[in-house]
Design goal:
By secondary structure, this protein is an alpha+beta fold. It folds into 2 domains: 269 residues, Tetratricopeptide repeat domain (Serine Threonine Protein Phosphatase 5, Tetratricopeptide repeat, Alpha Horseshoe), CATH 1.25.40; 133 residues, OB fold (Dihydrolipoamide Acetyltransferase, E2P), CATH 2.40.50. It has 18 helices and 9 strands. It has a 7-stranded mixed beta sheet with strand order 7-8-5-4-3-6-9. A two-stranded antiparallel sheet has the order 1-2. Strand 7 and strand 8 form a beta hairpin. The longest helix has 24 residues. It is rod-shaped and about 120 Å long.
């Protein structure tokens, strides 16, 4: 993320920090002499910001122990901001925090710049964590009810605190994410969201932190947070074109994980209306769906359950090795027990057949649909040609797989006719009626 003066200014304007008076001085300072005041006055009147920086540095050299140290550092930070010099802003803010450890102004900018500057060096990450924790630690004191001005509403007071806490948690999450502490990062980004539901960037980073954990059980939450960033369109939401890009990415990831678009709109609506996943939220993965189907099939259709399990193994990432080690040259299904039943044959529907020659009716191969009647999934290859069989005929068989292709999916079985049931018997040729004799006419 590149440093952006425009972006930082926008964030500052969104809050009510200035109007709440949180950057004010605790005591009335005193000028060392008239010369110090004149130097300060020249800084305020300077039109060129680089000139202003030079005067501020001169003030620092001549009056290092000034009572107006915080004022000087604030001016340095603000002037560097106008010049778009983020690193110099950070250095000035840290100098201010060293002199005044509870400076709200300094801690605010340090937390904001920790993320914006994208400095992932160990020292920068350590400072980011330290100052974020300090910032959280001064919230009770800073937002003490006795410090609230009468013209500031209770709602605005609480909202501003929540925004500042969200900033600190976001900084902690970013530090953890770049320190390869994914679980800690997730926790802090979720806290940032809870304090500021409009923080779509924290939602995206929460998704990233979860994905890095490589925990299948949590991928539903990763998809939820991605959808949240893309779907949320309330106050403070991302620009429409950015949300559209994130929505496209979410849809692609959802389909890859779930296997289709079903219930995707429900997830989007849920994410738009909720900051974090509701209790019990779950998106089933393709594998979980198949496993659930297999368990149901074991009771309702054990023959199909055997085929579905084998097909899932063949279509997986290690399908070729699975075929070579567990399927090829084995007798399938081989009396495997499923749901308390021994499965001796698989059941399929004839899709097409291949005859010995174009003019012959004798069949040497037949293609079956097993998962569904219209799918071409298995080829039965006979050593002895078989009688003609029509598409749509349902047969049962067992055989030995000898070939397999993943795309298009096909398993070729060598099958003995005696291991097939349901094949129609050959039709006997019709008997021809005897020819009638023609009576001989008398001459």
């Amino acid at each position: 993320m590149l440093f952006s003066t425009k972006r930082l200014t926008a964030i500052l304007v969104v809050g009510t920090v200035c109007s709440l008076g949180l950057w004010g001085q605790a005591k009335q300072p005193q000028w060392k002499d008239r010369a110090e005041y004149d130097l300060y006055d020249s800084i305020l009147k300077a039109q060129d910001n680089n000139t202003k920086i030079g005067l501020l540095q001169s003030w620092e050299q001549k009056y290092p122990q000034s009572d107006y140290l915080d004022t000087r550092n604030q001016l340095l930070v603000q002037t560097y901001q106008v010049l778009g010099k983020g690193k110099e802003m950070m250095a000035a803010a840290k100098k201010m925090a060293t002199a005044s450890p509870k400076s709200f102004f300094a801690l605010y900018w340090i937390n904001l710049l920790t993320v914006s500057l994208n400095d992932t060096s160990p020292a920068a990450l350590a400072d980011g964590e330290k100052y974020a924790k300090v910032f959280l630690g001064i919230m009770d004191e800073t937002f003490d009810a006795s410090k609230k001005k009468p013209e500031v509403t209770e709602e605005a007071w609480k909202k501003e605190r929540a925004m500042m806490e969200s900033l600190a948690y976001r900084s902690l999450g970013w530090v953890a994410l770049n320190s390869n502490k994914s679980e800690e990062a997730e926790k802090n980004f979720v806290e940032a969201l809870n304090h500021n539901p409009a923080d779509s960037q924290s939602a995206l980073w929460a998704a990233t932190a979860i994905i890095r954990q490589k925990n299948l059980e949590k991928q539903s939450d990763a998809l939820f947070y991605s959808a949240r960033a893309a779907a949320y369109d309330g106050p403070g939401a991302l620009a429409p074109d950015i949300r559209a890009r994130y929505m496209s990415s979410f849809e692609k990831n959802y389909i890859n994980f779930h296997g289709g678009k079903d219930k995707m709109d429900e997830v989007i609506s849920l994410a738009k209306a909720n900051t974090v996943p509701p209790d019990g939220f779950k998106i089933m993965s393709q594998d979980e769906i198949l496993q659930a189907q297999e368990k149901e099939l074991e009771q309702t259709n054990p023959q199909l359950a055997v085929w579905v399990k084998m097909k899932r193994g063949l279509t997986g990432p290690d399908g070729a090795s699975y075929f070579a080690s567990s399927v090829k040259d084995a007798h399938i299904p081989g009396g495997v027990e499923v749901g308390g039943q021994k499965i001796e044959k698989l059941k399929g529907t004839v899709v097409s057949s291949t005859t010995v020659t174009p003019r012959s009716s004798a069949v040497k191969e037949v293609v079956l649909g097993i998962s569904k009647a219209e799918m071409s999934e298995a080829t039965l290859r006979f050593e002895t040609p078989q009688p003609k069989i029509d598409p749509g005929t349902v047969i049962e068989f067992s055989g030995v797989p000898v070939e397999f292709t993943a795309e298009p999916f096909m398993v070729v079985f060598e099958v003995d006719a005696k291991d097939v049931t349901g094949w129609p018997k050959p039709v006997a040729p019709a008997k021809r009626a005897p020819a009638r004799k023609t009576a001989t006419k008398k001459k």
